[in-house]
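Page 42, continued from yesterday. The earlier attempt failed because a stray header line got pasted into the input along with the sequence. Redoing it now with the clean sequence only.
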Amino acid sequence: MRNLTAISARMILFSTVLLFSTVLRIAAAIVLIGVAVHPVRAQQPGPQPAPPRADPPAWEFLFTPDFWIPWTSTSVDPKNPALRSRSSTVDPGKLISHLSWVPFMGQAEVRNGPYGLFLDYIHAPVKAGINTPGIIFGAATGGLVIDAGTAIVMYRPFSEPDQYMDVGVGARAWGFAGDISLNEGLLPAVSVTRGASWADALAAARYHRDLGNGFGATLYGDVGAGGAAVDWQVLATVDYSFRPQIDLHAGFRSMNFNYTGQLARFNVHMYGPILSGTLHF
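This time it went through. Structure tokens are written below.
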């Protein structure tokens, strides 16, 4: 009797272990089947979530004050054949000594994606004394104010992490206002003011290349005509990224035009070293 009871207990224990093991196997099989079926269901056709929208291009504002000290070479060819042609070159030292007020030279640029608007402005007021015999009139002074403004609409067709290129079209407006003041001598004082202004259509291009270690190089050029027979500019700089929002530039700039007025033809070349810094906003 005792043997039969022991055998029954063992059979019950064996059946319980076998049942528990079977339940565990079934549960494991269900989990594995669920893991295997889930990715298949995810790949089944059906409504898919819309891809995230790309952020619109950010606006960027750049301001670049310049310090340009050019030589100015001018030739004047009068239309009157009885008058001789004249030419002269003014060095930076003489130009600075004849400034009558603080000049301004600077650039600004607004960018959004591949599009940009480039602006450049120069204002230079100069004045100098004029020798006179001192009999009919006393001392005399002559002044000249130069204004040149450029606006170019830019497009960037080529851009890589280490280089880019911009092309654009625009215009440059020139303005010259001159005056001569003769002090009183035998005759009363006299002041004469003359001026000229015109605008030229331009085509422009700019290329920049990173050189590594924060350095880069930029070459800009534009050429056009309109009021002038020809109007062109070249600017080449070596660039350095001083701070994430500040770039420094040093290079050479040349601005030139050939203009025919009512009384003479003028051929002007302004060229010299340039220093500037760009602030990014």
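Notes: Residues 1-24, 26-46 have pLDDT under 50 and may be disordered.
Reminder to self: strip header lines before submitting.
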